[in-house]
C-alpha cells in the first residue's frame, strides 16, 4: 500500500519496502504498464540506433540521413510520455513535498494532502483534455474535416501519431 505520509512507511528489508509500493493489482494496469514498458524500451532502442547511424553517416561516410529528425521527434515523444505514465503509476517522479516534511500529523496535514491531490487531479484532467484536443486537431486537421491534415515535410508522417503519445501518456496520469 502506497501512502503519502512518510512516517507511515515501516519496512525492515529492501524487498518489504519495494512491496509497499507494488500496487499492480488488476489485469488492466498490468497490461497497460507492460505495454508502456515495451513501447518505451523499443523507442529507446530505435532512438539509439538512429542517432548512432546518423553519427556514423555524418562523420565516417561523410553523408546525411535526410529526414531522420522526424523519426527522432516521433520516437522521443513516445518514449517521454510512456515513460512519464510509468513514473506516475509507480510514483517515482521527483517531488518536493514540503507538506509531509514540515507539517505534523493531524487534520491540517490531511486536509493539505487532500487539497494537493485534488489540485493535481484537476490539472491532470485539464491537460488530458488539451491532449485529446491536440490529438483530434492532428487527426482531423485544422478544419475538423480530415482535409489539410498536418504532416511532416519529408516522410509525410501525420502529426497525430506524435500527438497520440501526448494524449495517451496524459490520460494514464489521471
Q: What would you call the structural class?
A: mainly alpha
Low-pLDDT segments, ≥5 res? none
Order of helices and strands: HHHHHH
State the share of residues found in helices, binned by percent. Answer: 55-70%
Averaged pLDDT:
86
Distance between the termini: 19 Å
Biggest sheet overview: none
Tell me the number of helical segments per DSSP (H or I, 4 or more residues long): 6
The figure for the number of domains is: 1
The beta-strand count equals 0
How many whole angstroms does the radius of gyration measure? 21 Å
Q: What is the approximate shape?
A: extended
Give the strand content.
Answer: under 5%
List the helices and strands and how they pair.
Blueprint: H1 14-20, H2 27-59, H3 68-90, H4 98-102, H5 107-140, H6 159-173
Helix pairs in contact: 2-3, 3-6, 5-6
Tell me about this structure.
By secondary structure, the protein is an all-alpha fold. It has one domain (26-173). Helix content is 67%, strand content 0%. It is built from six helices and no strands. The mean pLDDT is 86.
Amino acid at each position: 500500500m502506497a501512502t503519502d505520509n512518510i512516517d507511515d512507511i515501516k519496512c525492515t528489508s529492501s524487498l518489504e519496502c519495494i512491496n509497499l509500493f507494488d500496487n499492480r493489482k488488476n489485469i488492466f494496469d498490468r497490461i497497460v504498464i507492460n505495454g508502456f514498458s515495451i513501447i518505451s524500451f523499443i523507442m529507446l532502442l530505435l532512438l539509439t540506433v538512429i542517432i548512432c547511424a546518423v553519427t556514423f553517416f555524418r562523420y565516417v561516410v561523410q553523408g546525411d540521413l535526410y529526414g531522420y529528425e522526424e523519426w527522432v521527434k516521433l520516437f522521443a515523444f513516445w518514449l517521454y510520455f510512456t515513460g512519464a505514465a510509468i513514473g506516475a503509476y509507480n510514483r517515482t517522479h521527483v517531488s518536493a513535498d514540503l507538506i509531509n516534511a514540515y507539517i505534523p500529523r493531524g487534520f491540517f496535514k490531511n486536509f493539505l494532502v487532500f487539497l494537493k491531490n485534488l489540485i493535481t487531479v484537476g490539472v491532470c484532467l485539464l491537460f488530458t483534455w488539451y491532449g485529446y484536443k491536440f490529438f483530434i486537431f492532428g487527426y482531423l486537421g485544422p478544419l475538423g474535416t480530415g482535409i489539410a491534415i498536418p504532416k511532416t515535410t519529408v516522410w509525410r508522417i501525420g502529426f497525430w501519431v506524435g500527438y497520440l503519445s501526448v494524449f495517451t501518456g496524459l490520460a494514464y496520469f489521471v
